[in-house]
Design brief:
Elements lengths: L1 H8 L5 H33 L8
């Protein structure tokens, strides 16, 4: 996301702002991805879809 957004939408920002923006993008992606994975696993476990693989 940062590799796409920085050159296209923020080409003239300072290096410190770009660094902060990249850090925020990485952190938010990790949080959203992690929570999404946990919620998906919980939903799959409740449905019984994971019973065959023993997780």
């Amino acid at each position: 996301m940062a590799l796409h957004d920085l050159p296209l939408y923020f080409p003239d920002v300072s290096a410190s702002f770009a660094t902060a923006l990249v850090a925020a993008m990485v952190a938010s992606s990790a949080i959203i991805g992690g929570l999404g994975a946990l919620l998906l696993r919980k939903a799959l476990r409740r449905s019984g879809a994971l019973d065959l693989i023993g997780s």
